[in-house]
Amino acid sequence: MRAAVKPSGTRSRPRNRRRALPWAILALWVAAIALAGPSAAELGGVQTNRAVDYLPASADSTQVAKIQDALPGGEATELVLVYHRDGGLTAADRTLAAEQTAEVARGHALTRTPSPVPSEDGTTLMYPVSSTEPGQDDDARTAFVDEVRAIAEGGGGLTVDVGGPGALNTDAQKVYESLGGPLLYTTVAVVAILLILIYRSPLLWLVPLVVAGVADALSMAVVYGLNRGFDITVTGQSSAVMTILVFGAGTDYALLLVSRYREELTRIDRPYDAMVAALRGCGPAVIASSGTVAAGLLCLLAADLTSSRGMGPIAAVGVLCALLAMTTLLPALLVLLGRRVFWPLVPAYGSLPRQRRSLFAAMGGSAGRRPPAVLACGGVLLGALALGSFNLPGDLKQEDSFSSKPDSIVAMETLAAAYPGRSTQPITVITPTERAAAALAKARATEGVAAVERGRSGGGWTELSVIATARPESAGERATIEALRDSLDGSHVGGPSAQQMDAETANARDLRTVVPLVLISVLLILIALLRSLVAPLLLVAAVVAVWGASLGIGGLVFEPLLGMKGTDPGLPLLSFVFLVALGVDYGIFLMHRVREETLSGTAPTAAALTALRTTGGVIASAGLVLAATFAVLLNMPIVSLVQMGFVVAVGVLLDTFLVRTYLVTSASVALQRKIWWPGALSRTPAAPDGPREPELLTTA
Known about the structure:
By secondary structure, the protein is an alpha+beta fold. The protein has helices at 15-41, 60-70, 91-107, 138-151, 165-199, 206-230, 236-265, 271-298, 306-337, 359-369, 371-386, 407-418, 436-445, 475-487, 496-530, 534-557, 571-599, 604-631, 639-671, and strands at residues 77-84, 117-118, 124-131, 159-163, 427-432, 449-458, 461-468, 492-494.
């Protein structure tokens, strides 16, 4: 308990400053959002979700796409019209298919006349359709695919689906474009419910939620500016993750600030002065933690995969915009609303905090009694869970990338069943025109190739369309692609399956490059902040263990329980970056408080338990909010987003309720002052100055 204290200097502070500054901050934010609004609204228009846009610029399949753009007519939109009847196609079905395909040809400029390819069992007929008419314009491509689908219609037992790379890209684009509204609304609803439960106030929950919405709008405008100015790749995945981080991390910062502000209002009469004290108390920890998160995310700039490299600054922008809003706009609004914003639990000036039985005090006590046993059990549990990562399904295929199958995926599955001895998805080879004849002959002689057709020429390059004998994305087709790349010197091999292979290769390389960078950058920041080597190493080891356990739980859930047939190749890297950065975020709050208690003269064991008791409630609330916001991704129709949301949400919960509560606290008790080695705090006890006012966090 602490008696109410009125800080010196309160009366000397000019009253007009207390009144004017919050209004000035509010006015600046209103002006900023008014200016940023138009740019924020344009962010969806610069998103790109083609598979080739995710790849490194140096990838073989990326070079194919770039050269195709320069060929006569530009980029071609490749479609396949699939006519299928279970009992076998009738003569009327074949006539209808020919008429509809001819209608498509009359209405659009096609690169070649569509020819029917019947299946051996007579149940399916496919018509490959290729057009350069839409060019590189996303809207034109979507319109072209929609028009073809409007023409190609079945009935009476005849199913007609439009597939192919062009249709798949269009379906993916539509799905990502549709995510913005549902993702935002669901995230807002989840955060609102949690804030109402945490604050138990009809008004207070709304303030941080509105501020998070403002931060989200600002972050979208900033990202749009980065795209226009620096050509940073913006994908539907990176935009979704940015929104999640703005609301998740932003709400975390709000919980910490509001908790400290509520405490200061019991000690300080005027809300303005109480907010200044709250910002001085928890501001350094919030800034340090958000800076660590941003630094970890920016390590993705070293990634080779274009989508991952773009996600780094985009996610960092979200975190920093959330920090800016929660440390300026939120304090201004809380000061202007005064104490009544906490109704009905209004903190009265001069009152004492209610004494409640603390769950975290009990948990800390159990962790402190036998720290070696707790550490051993926790380590064994995390290690056992990590073994589940060996059960993760193989790399995710295009046909399994949507939780609800669009028309293009249905067409792909129908073709795979009807044409088992032939690929229905071409491999594209771009070869120098002077060597086109030799390349054509070599391609035809390559093992696994069923047919080769010469296509367009221009700019010194010639296009070859290769049909493999193996089904798309199978081991046989991959072997054919590798054989073509080995035998065709000076040529580039691309197409959807080659793009998948290049993405997997880039992800594996990025994992080896980015992971050490993240660990080193986070470790250096922690060393500078905590002035120790042992404590930072402990925190980093803890979050790495959480990452492994979270992936392991994913391996036990994805295929056995959720029926997912593949794992997104980018999941290990992106989940590592998010879990390490966000996990260390909470570690900073806890260990910084342990350090403060130790500096004030508290014995090491008591310092660790006091830090857990005083910060546990806030960290638990923040962890629940962050996990819930990432869990919103579980409701999305993209498998990669579902997997990302699951792994990060589970990791945050493990970190919050197991690692921070038991393992880090037990390690602090077991190591005593050695945890601050080689700093001065590890060698000599701090002078017992008497009780200090805590400078960071209190319970929520």
